[in-house]
Design a protein that fits this description.
It contains 15 helices and three strands. The chain is mainly alpha-helical.
């Protein structure tokens, strides 16, 4: 496997041009670039004299046991896009059927923590013992409250710079996030107070471009590091973890929980869904109202006292859960 970042196969020039074209349009194309390099690697060992062959395409998109349905779908989609790009440039290319993505047995459904469980997780984080210069006892109580209190993706939270956290107004600035969205996230006063205390203890000397959550090594925290620590915290809370296949809970489920709890609060206070959903959608950075609307069913399941109210008032807009929206929001 090559380690440099150039394409070397028979379609190298076209792959470079396709990637440059997408990025010129504003797309990040980070994961897609990795998939393109995998296809480029395969092409080195295939006969591509007559274009992109079916054998290469089918070998690449054949679902592996460890792939999620979302991964399988993404690989199929990038392969189709490359094939169409090659065709548009006069090169024969096999175009696979996007329906070849296999269905998982049962739709993925995120884990929704109860409010009591969230409080228990916070208590465990607050009881982390100080250890040298690691700062886990300072970092986790704040970032977990931020994930739950603001519904952030973990990638958004660890990427915050000091200049992105307005501690006087209590506002987070999220730039160039998923779907190329920017947004402002107001924090409540209790979370802002936690952030101020954290900043006072950790930002004694800093520059505006430093990470707000600076790791002990000086860069930003690795997402997997936070995830594994989170696994340990929920284990101490007595919350069993069945793994990704058996429903988590995952760190990203804190974001799902924020959405469900927020919708519950809106509906309990008499705010109609037509007013609540656009606000929550903008706050979370969803690409469409449909993505946010799917949480209505989860809200009904998590809060049975609201089930009849939600079904009577909103049942006509509650769609079935689909893996593609919950894994990519």
């Amino acid at each position: 496997m090559r380690t440099n970042k150039d394409f070397h196969g028979p379609f190298a020039e076209h792959l470079r041009n396709y990637l440059a074209e997408k990025r010129a349009l504003g797309f990040k194309y980070i994961e897609q670039e990795r998939f393109m390099r995998e296809i480029d690697n395969l092409s080195l060992d295939c006969d591509c004299s007559n274009g992109l062959p079916k054998e290469l395409v089918m070998a690449y998109i054949e679902k592996k046991p460890h792939w999620s349905q979302a991964t399988h779908r993404h690989k199929v989609l990038i392969t189709r896009r490359i094939a169409m790009y090659l065709r548009n440039n006069g090169i024969a290319a096999y175009l696979c059927d996007e329906k070849c993505v296999t269905k998982d047995s049962g739709s993925f459904k995120p884990y929704i923590f109860t409010r009591r469980q969230i409080e228990s997780i916070f208590r465990q984080a607050d009881n982390i013992s100080p250890r040298g210069s690691v700062n886990s006892n300072l970092f986790y109580p704040v970032i977990l409250r931020m994930l739950y209190g603001c519904g952030l993706r973990i990638s958004e939270a660890v990427s915050l710079k000091i200049k992105d956290v307005d501690l006087s107004e209590g506002v987070l600035y999220i730039y160039d996030s998923k779907h190329n969205k920017d947004r402002l996230i107001p924090m409540d006063e209790s979370l802002t107070a936690y952030c101020r205390k954290y900043a006072e203890m950790t930002h004694t000397v800093y520059m505006d471009d430093d990470y707000f959550f600076k790791s002990p090594r000086g860069g930003k925290y690795a997402i997997q590091t936070v995830y594994h620590y989170f696994r340990g915290l929920i284990w101490k809370c007595g919350i069993s973890h069945g793994g990704r296949i058996n429903g988590g809970p995952r760190l990203h489920d804190v974001r799902h929980t924020f959405c469900v709890h927020s919708l519950h609060q809106f509906l309990e206070n008499g705010v109609p869904h037509k007013a609540a959903l656009p606000v929550l959608s903008a706050y979370m950075g969803h690409s469409s109202l449909d993505s946010t609307g799917r949480y209505l069913r989860l809200t009904a399941e998590a809060f049975p006292d609201l089930t009849s109210q939600i079904e009577d008032a909103h049942g006509h807009i509650i769609p079935d859960l689909e893996v593609r929206l919950f894994e990519t929001d």
